């Protein structure tokens, strides 16, 4: 992204295209952008991104309250068990439903039994504003778990949604810097929850602190911070 | 007659704000004009009690707590003013069956607290990422006994005034007025006038408040843009 354009709610977004095929074009408005009356305007504060080829516009903003979106990985806590599935707290307005059979290889006879308080890593399967969200612990197309499922042991903490989005990138500087120093497991949910698992509690504390501290640091500062933390250990 | 704090009649007090200063809420802001200072914390969209649930839109709940003592009827009035203003601006239909809770805590009230409450709420809602149709900026104006209209009155000035007016405007309306449009073409989203006043007084206050709201809006814009620019710079690296 060459230039970053910051928009605020109410700012009108110029969606006029350079090409001539304007009549037939369909505009795709992503998060933070909506049609208000006759115009397209921003409804959230953030950095405006656009893809002129696909005629897409969206605003990237940092929030703390999760609004589910289909396909996103989330970390949740089981809060109740019903006849048809588990109720899982993923930080959204309504708890998400995790069907009993939405696990790899689950059958009516043989299915995982999760206790209340279990941490799960899941993918949002159904998300729209009028229904409660639904999540699943496997890829329903392939039937494989693909890393989703119960997160046994370990430690879960919360962070901002913007930080979670940066952590899920495989090039996330803080995770790479930590990973080159100490072994640990991590699961990042786009709902602003991070689960980590290490061999010793002291390492867990170190990693959790490092990730939380990285919120306002750039790549270079991240590496420096991790280096200092590892030296102190 | 000079004002007690030596301001010009159309001069607002120094503005100050902090975004996201509260840890546990989804969005928060502190907004201060001189010694009047207000905190606002926003939760949303969160789960709503079945009793209050609206099937087609989010419920907006506003709580206002005064700086000292228990909240009373006057505070209910501020709550209804904020709720009325923002029910129009929040895109509540985007999050049906949820609650957007706005908690306002006055830290110090030295006049024009209702305008400060509206401004703080705008900033907290933007910080929380609640979908908004537009930003809202508010300003107050008082007509003194000698007929002079002064903006952003202190508690002392407001107590001695003939009438006190508070106006809130939507950002796009302010922008249109700023770009040379006639001031009559903008419509305020909130008006509160108390005391004895003539139509001429009202019009005078309207123009003064519109100009003050322009400055407040520009201030809020700078503050929010600064925070986003700082955050996005990190994510780009």
Automatic annotation (TrEMBL), chain A:
<keyword id="KW-0271">Exosome</keyword>
<dbReference type="GO" id="GO:0005730">
    <property type="term" value="C:nucleolus"/>
</dbReference>
<dbReference type="GO" id="GO:0034475">
    <property type="term" value="P:U4 snRNA 3'-end processing"/>
</dbReference>
<dbReference type="InterPro" id="IPR049469">
    <property type="entry name" value="RRP40_KH-I"/>
</dbReference>
<feature type="domain" description="K Homology">
    <location>
        <begin position="154"/>
        <end position="201"/>
    </location>
</feature>
<feature type="domain" description="Exosome complex exonuclease Rrp40 N-terminal">
    <location>
        <begin position="27"/>
        <end position="65"/>
    </location>
</feature>
<dbReference type="InterPro" id="IPR036612">
    <property type="entry name" value="KH_dom_type_1_sf"/>
</dbReference>
<keyword id="KW-0694">RNA-binding</keyword>
<dbReference type="InterPro" id="IPR037319">
    <property type="entry name" value="Rrp40_S1"/>
</dbReference>
<dbReference type="GO" id="GO:0071051">
    <property type="term" value="P:poly(A)-dependent snoRNA 3'-end processing"/>
</dbReference>
<dbReference type="GO" id="GO:0000467">
    <property type="term" value="P:exonucleolytic trimming to generate mature 3'-end of 5.8S rRNA from tricistronic rRNA transcript (SSU-rRNA, 5.8S rRNA, LSU-rRNA)"/>
</dbReference>
<dbReference type="InterPro" id="IPR041054">
    <property type="entry name" value="Rrp40_N_euk"/>
</dbReference>
<dbReference type="InterPro" id="IPR004088">
    <property type="entry name" value="KH_dom_type_1"/>
</dbReference>
<protein>
    <recommendedName>
        <fullName>Ribosomal RNA-processing protein 40</fullName>
    </recommendedName>
</protein>
<comment type="similarity">
    <text>Belongs to the RRP40 family.</text>
</comment>
<dbReference type="InterPro" id="IPR026699">
    <property type="entry name" value="Exosome_RNA_bind1/RRP40/RRP4"/>
</dbReference>
<dbReference type="Pfam" id="PF21262">
    <property type="entry name" value="RRP40_S1"/>
</dbReference>
<dbReference type="GO" id="GO:0000177">
    <property type="term" value="C:cytoplasmic exosome (RNase complex)"/>
</dbReference>
<keyword id="KW-0698">rRNA processing</keyword>
<dbReference type="GO" id="GO:0071035">
    <property type="term" value="P:nuclear polyadenylation-dependent rRNA catabolic process"/>
</dbReference>
<dbReference type="GO" id="GO:0071038">
    <property type="term" value="P:TRAMP-dependent tRNA surveillance pathway"/>
</dbReference>
<keyword id="KW-0963">Cytoplasm</keyword>
TrEMBL record, chain B:
<dbReference type="Pfam" id="PF03725">
    <property type="entry name" value="RNase_PH_C"/>
</dbReference>
<dbReference type="GO" id="GO:0006364">
    <property type="term" value="P:rRNA processing"/>
</dbReference>
<dbReference type="GO" id="GO:0071051">
    <property type="term" value="P:poly(A)-dependent snoRNA 3'-end processing"/>
</dbReference>
<protein>
    <submittedName>
        <fullName>Exosome non-catalytic core subunit rrp46</fullName>
    </submittedName>
</protein>
<dbReference type="InterPro" id="IPR015847">
    <property type="entry name" value="ExoRNase_PH_dom2"/>
</dbReference>
<dbReference type="InterPro" id="IPR036345">
    <property type="entry name" value="ExoRNase_PH_dom2_sf"/>
</dbReference>
<dbReference type="InterPro" id="IPR020568">
    <property type="entry name" value="Ribosomal_Su5_D2-typ_SF"/>
</dbReference>
<dbReference type="InterPro" id="IPR027408">
    <property type="entry name" value="PNPase/RNase_PH_dom_sf"/>
</dbReference>
<keyword id="KW-0539">Nucleus</keyword>
<dbReference type="Pfam" id="PF01138">
    <property type="entry name" value="RNase_PH"/>
</dbReference>
<dbReference type="InterPro" id="IPR050080">
    <property type="entry name" value="RNase_PH"/>
</dbReference>
<dbReference type="GO" id="GO:0071028">
    <property type="term" value="P:nuclear mRNA surveillance"/>
</dbReference>
<dbReference type="GO" id="GO:0000177">
    <property type="term" value="C:cytoplasmic exosome (RNase complex)"/>
</dbReference>
<dbReference type="GO" id="GO:0016075">
    <property type="term" value="P:rRNA catabolic process"/>
</dbReference>
<feature type="domain" description="Exoribonuclease phosphorolytic">
    <location>
        <begin position="11"/>
        <end position="131"/>
    </location>
</feature>
<keyword id="KW-0698">rRNA processing</keyword>
<dbReference type="InterPro" id="IPR001247">
    <property type="entry name" value="ExoRNase_PH_dom1"/>
</dbReference>
<dbReference type="GO" id="GO:0005730">
    <property type="term" value="C:nucleolus"/>
</dbReference>
<dbReference type="GO" id="GO:0034475">
    <property type="term" value="P:U4 snRNA 3'-end processing"/>
</dbReference>
<comment type="similarity">
    <text>Belongs to the RNase PH family.</text>
</comment>
<keyword id="KW-0271">Exosome</keyword>
<dbReference type="GO" id="GO:0003723">
    <property type="term" value="F:RNA binding"/>
</dbReference>
């Amino acid at each position: 992204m060459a230039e970053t354009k910051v928009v605020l709610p109410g700012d009108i977004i110029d969606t006029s295209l350079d090409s001539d095929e304007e009549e037939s074009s369909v505009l795709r408005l992503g998060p933070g952008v909506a049609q208000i009356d006759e115009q397209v305007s921003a409804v959230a504060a953030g950095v405006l991104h656009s893809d002129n080829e696909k005629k897409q516009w969206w605003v990237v903003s940092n929030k703390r309250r999760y609004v589910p979106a289909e396909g996103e990985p989330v970390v949740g806590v089981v809060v109740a068990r019903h006849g048809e599935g588990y109720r899982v707290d993923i930080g959204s307005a309504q708890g998400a439903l995790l069907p009993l059979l939405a696990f790899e290889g689950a059958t009516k006879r043989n299915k995982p039994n999760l206790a209340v308080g279990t941490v799960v890593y899941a993918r949002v399967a159904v998300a729209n504003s009028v229904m409660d969200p639904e999540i699943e612990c496997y890829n329903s197309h392939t039937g494989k778990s693909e890393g989703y499922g119960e997160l046994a042991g370990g430690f879960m903490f919360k962070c901002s949604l913007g930080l979670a989005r940066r952590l899920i990138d495989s090039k996330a500087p803080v995770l790479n810097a930590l990973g080159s120093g100490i072994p640990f497991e991590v699961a990042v949910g786009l709902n602003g929850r991070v689960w980590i698992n290490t061999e010793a509690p002291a390492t867990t504390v170190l990693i959790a602190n490092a990730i939380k501290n990285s919120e306002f640091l750039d790549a270079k500062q991240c590496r420096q911070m991790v280096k200092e933390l590892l030296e102190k250990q | 007659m000079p004002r007690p704090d030596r301001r010009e009649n159309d001069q607002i007090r120094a503005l100050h704000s902090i975004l996201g200063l509260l840890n546990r809420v989804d969005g928060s802001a502190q907004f201060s004009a001189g010694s009047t200072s207000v905190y606002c914390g926003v939760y949303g969209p969160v789960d709503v009690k079945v009793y209050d649930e609206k099937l087609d839109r989010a419920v907006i709940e506003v709580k206002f707590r005064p700086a000292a003592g228990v909240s009373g009827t006057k505070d209910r009035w501020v709550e209804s003013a904020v709720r009325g203003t923002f029910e129009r601006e929040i895109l509540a239909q985007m999050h049906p069956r949820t609650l957007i809770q706005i908690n306002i805590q006055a830290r110090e009230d030295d006049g024009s607290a209702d305008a400060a409450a509206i401004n703080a709420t705008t900033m907290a809602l933007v910080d929380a990422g609640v979908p908004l149709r537009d930003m809202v900026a508010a300003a107050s104006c008082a007509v003194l006994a000698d007929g002079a209209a002064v903006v952003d009155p202190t508690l002392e000035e407001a107590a001695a005034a003939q009438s006190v007016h508070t106006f809130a405007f939507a950002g796009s309306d302010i922008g249109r007025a700023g770009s040379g449009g006639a001031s009559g073409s903008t419509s305020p989203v909130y008006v509160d006038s108390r005391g004895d006043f003539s139509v001429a007084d009202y019009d005078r206050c309207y123009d003064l408040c519109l100009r003050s709201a322009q400055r407040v809006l520009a201030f809020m814009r700078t503050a929010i843009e600064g925070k986003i620019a700082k955050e996005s710079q990190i994510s780009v690296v």
